[in-house]
Design goal:
The complex is a heterodimer of chains A (178) and B (628).
Chain A lengths: L1 H35 L3 E2 L3 H9 L2 H19 L20 H13 L2 H28 L6 H6 L1 H19 L9
Helix pairs in contact in A: 1-2, 1-3, 1-7, 3-5, 5-7
Chain B lengths: L8 E5 L1 H4 L8 H10 L1 E3 L12 E2 L4 E6 L2 E2 L8 E4 L1 H10 L13 E4 L6 E2 L2 H6 L17 H12 L5 E5 L7 H6 L4 E4 L5 H12 L14 H15 L6 E4 L6 H15 L7 E5 L8 H6 E2 L10 E2 L1 H4 L4 E5 L6 H13 L1 E2 L8 E2 L3 E6 L3 H6 L5 H7 L4 E3 L10 H15 L7 E2 L1 H9 L5 H15 L5 E2 L12 H6 L2 H20 L8 H10 L7 H4 L3 H22 L14 H9 L6 H12 L3 H8 L2 H13 L12
Parallel strand pairs in B: 1-4, 1-7, 2-4, 7-9, 9-10, 11-18, 11-19, 12-15, 15-18, 20-21
Antiparallel strand pairs in B: 5-6, 6-8, 13-14, 16-17
Classes of the chains: A mainly alpha (178), B alpha/beta (628).
Chain lengths: 178, 628
């Protein structure tokens, strides 16, 4: 049960960070940048990217916020007290889980990690919103020249996604015993 | 077909990228190819389906899922496939084929998801299963199991981990299992990193085409050379290999790779034949001369100064006289030279690449080569170039390359197809003279048969009696003994008096290193004319052989007519040499020591050459004095 509690968050992290962000979204962003730099000829990809790939961020952004917020609760060793044998401790000893939790937060600097990840996610989201606005406001729509003009912004967005991926990697891989 | 035929061919083993998706292109694979600038040559339904065209791909990629089935849909159960994956690797590694060159490198994923493809998992990523808890556990990564198996069966195959998982989780395991490195797909400079990994670790041909071949043995030597080129310039490299294997070409490759990788284009590469560094001349040749106004001595740069900032290649260091050895050791120790006549040393930045085909350690042990110098000359490592008999896969490509060169060098020669039976015959031969001997053999075949469209066994003249079947059946210890015997043969030839038993290189070394005995007064007396005569005869014989080599049959001369212009081009190596300069050269060679050369002129071929040259460039008649 304990293993499952921790691994549920790990699976969510793997789903977002490994399967989606790093294996799907960021390679597509890198491909777009290579198209915009003239390394690739692909008449359809820019349109596909803007219409289909880029907006996927919108659905995954709430998912990553929830993942970051849930880390403190789901990965804390306090969870060990919810399952046998520690759950069988007398009621008067129930202060211990909170002490363990506070020690864990301090030792692994969890608050800093949460704060860094939230900052990276929010900054990435801000860049995404700016990109969407720039694309929607432009009367030429998603023409090639317009996308080329936004190349640096796409690169900034890719770099911020990379920062987010790295910050999420820094969270613990298992429930550590203090 | 891509415009660049010898792009590295890499195998990417990854569950997500290797799967075939039934009703749409594999988007993740197309993204990765677009990200890394790879040309997808998998050959499955997905390859090329995305419609993107990479303008300058850095490699060709074959994708492999590492699981069964390759194409999965809802309801299928996906399982890892170790045996099938090893077989896929084996098929691209066992032999080089024109349509499927050998793997240059394998990029290997770590985390392979298994289990059933459900409606939910299929919506998330088409064809991908739900995954089992152990799949994403570093202790149970299928990629690491696969890596161990690959390293055990294919120890020479370079493998790099390609994963979006945290590197630190597996860095110890992948190092133990023989991977060269770790490539994070999400790195912003992933293309640059892959390029760098390909350069450092993969088995790739020389894309400049100067070192010709694609055999594993050669490509491993090229890889070692690229790595050596990256080292600190104070670390010098020793190149070993039998005569004719191409040590100078490898040295030039190191120089070129250093220039390209360190962005030091235009730095000099200087070749020094160690045999010409006589005790009297080595200092002025290597270190140069300080100019003196009073004595009217002109300043002259030495070879080391000429090579400053680049590489200096010492060919056959066994021939280096002790005085030169001491002088070079000082340069290596002090990083400066003292030109002849100078008082102050001049700092130099030269990296030495030295070559030998012999047992330099034995010379060192007996004091004929300084041990401390040898240690310095190989401080950056020793590179070994394999003999041609261990590179049989390269014989066809080398033969084709040399045939094209020979056709260009032979006026009117037809372009020819190399017959399979000719390749078989060439592969059966032991090639004691290695690539140089193969080149001569093919040039001779083209010059002797310029008007044919096929190179067949009857055109090939082989000189060695040792054949490959014997070599192939030799045990490793026999081969070592054989190699020792060969080296001994080379050593013996140094003392041989039979001109036919020594190579031209050996003859040059002997002449250059010959030391006259100053104590033998009588022996030195009246030998000038003889020496000049012998030199003139040697040059005349060289001309005769070159005339023979460039002879071509014509209707009037079915046995072959001589042409002095191609002869002179062959001798000088200058393809732009004019006909008049060629005639001048022939006259000069045959007019040295007329008395000594006269008997040779009775040979019709030399006489004919001289007459042709005189006809083309008649001597200027003396201007008559007005009063005469």
């Amino acid at each position: 049960m304990i293993r499952e509690a921790g691994s549920a968050w790990q699976l969510r992290r793997s789903e977002f960070n490994h399967r989606w962000l790093k294996n799907e979204y960021m390679p597509a962003l890198a491909r777009l940048l290579n198209v915009l730099e003239g390394h690739i000829e692909d008449s359809e990809f820019q349109q596909t990217f803007v219409e289909d790939v880029l907006p996927r961020w919108k659905t995954h952004y709430p998912e990553v916020l929830s993942l970051i917020h849930d880390c403190e609760n789901d990965m804390s060793p306090r969870r060990l007290f919810e399952h046998p044998p520690l759950s069988r401790w007398p009621r008067e000893h129930r202060w211990l889980p909170e002490i363990v939790h506070v020690l864990w937060l301090s030792k692994y600097q969890v608050a800093d990690k949460v704060s860094d990840s939230l900052a990276a996610a929010n900054q990435a989201n801000e860049l995404y919103v700016n990109l969407r606005e720039a694309l929607e406001c432009d009367p030429r729509g998603e023409s090639v020249s317009r996308l080329e003009a936004l190349r640096d912004r796409f690169a900034d967005f890719r770099d911020k996604c990379q920062e987010l991926a790295k910050s999420i990697e820094r969270f613990p891989n298992k429930i550590f015993v203090i | 077909m891509s415009a660049k035929p010898n792009l590295p061919r890499i195998l990417i083993i990854d569950d997500l990228l290797g799967r075939t998706v039934s009703d749409r292109p594999n988007e993740e694979r197309a993204n990765l190819c677009g990200q890394f600038l790879l040309e997808d040559v998998t050959g499955d339904e997905d390859a090329g389906k995305s419609g993107q065209k990479i303008k300058k791909p850095i490699a060709r990629a074959v994708f492999w899922r590492g699981q069964q089935p390759l194409c999965s849909s809802v309801g299928d159960c996906v399982e890892n496939d170790l045996k099938g994956t090893l077989e896929a690797i084996r098929q691209g590694w066992a032999e080089w084929r024109p349509d499927a060159p050998r793997w240059s490198m394998v990029l290997l994923d770590l985390c392979f998801y298994t289990g059933h493809v459900t409606a939910e998992s299929n919506v998330r990523t088409p064809g991908m299963p739900e995954g089992r808890p152990d799949d994403s556990s570093p202790d149970h990564y299928f990629g690491l199991r696969l890596l161990e198996a690959i390293h055990a069966e294919f120890p020479d195959l370079p493998v790099v981990v390609l994963s979006s998982q945290p590197r630190e989780q597996v860095s110890h395991q992948f190092s133990i299992s023989g991977a060269f490195g770790f490539l994070a797909g999400s790195d912003p400079d992933s293309t640059g990193l892959l390029k760098d990994y390909l350069w450092r670790y993969s088995l790739i041909e020389d894309d400049a085409g100067e070192v010709v071949g694609h055999s594993k043995a050669l490509l491993m030597a090229l890889r070692a050379s690229r790595r050596a080129s990256l080292q600190d310039r104070n670390l010098h490299v020793l190149l070993r290999g039998e005569r004719g294997v191409g040590k100078e070409l490898l040295a030039r490759y190191i120089h070129r790779q250093h220039a390209e990788h360190a962005k030091h284009a235009g730095r000099p590469f200087v070749v020094v034949n160690s045999a010409v560094l006589t005790p009297e001349l080595f200092a002025s040749e290597l270190f140069g001369i300080e100019g003196r106004v009073a004595t009217q001595v002109d300043q002259r740069d030495g070879l080391i100064t000429t090579a400053d900032g680049g590489h200096l290649f010492f060919d056959e260091i066994r021939d280096m006289v002790p005085q030169a050895q001491a002088g070079i050791l000082r340069v290596l120790e002090e990083g400066s030279i003292l030109p002849v006549g100078a008082r102050e040393p001049v700092p130099v930045d030269v990296r030495f690449l030295s070559a030998t085909n012999g047992d330099i350690e034995s010379l060192s042990a007996t004091g004929r080569f300084r041990g401390d110098l040898l240690d310095r000359l190989r401080s950056g490592g020793t590179l070994v170039l394999p003999p041609l008999r261990e590179r049989q896969e390269d014989i066809q490509l080398l033969t084709e390359t040399f045939a094209r060169e020979a056709e260009l060098a032979t006026p009117g020669a037809l372009e020819r197809v190399i017959d399979e039976t000719a390749i078989e015959e060439l592969c059966e031969y032991d090639w004691p003279g290695n690539v140089r001997e193969l080149r001569s053999c093919i040039f001779q075949a083209v010059h002797n048969h310029p008007d044919v469209e096929h190179l067949v066994p009857v055109h090939i003249e082989l000189s060695s009696v040792v054949t490959a079947p014997q070599a192939a059946t030799r045990s490793p210890s026999d081969r070592m003994a054989g190699d020792a015997a060969e080296n001994a043969r080379a050593d013996d030839s140094d003392q041989s008096t039979d001109p036919a038993s020594i190579t031209l290189d050996e003859l040059l070394a002997t002449i250059s290193n010959y030391e006259f005995d100053s104590a033998d007064y009588a022996g030195l007396s009246q030998r000038l004319e003889e020496l000049e005569g012998a030199t003139a005869k040697l040059l005349a014989n060289y001309l005769k052989a070159s005339l023979d080599a460039t002879k071509r049959p014509t209707p009037d001369h079915p046995g072959g007519k001589i042409f002095i212009h191609p002869t002179a081009k062959l001798m000088t190596g200058n393809p732009k040499l004019s006909a008049s300069k060629a005639a001048d050269l022939i006259k000069r060679l045959l007019n040295r020591s007329p008395a000594a050369v006269a008997p040779l002129l009775e040979n019709s071929i030399l006489k004919e050459a001289l007459e042709t040259a005189q006809r083309l460039r008649p001597s200027n008649p003396r201007k008559k004095r007005p009063n005469a």
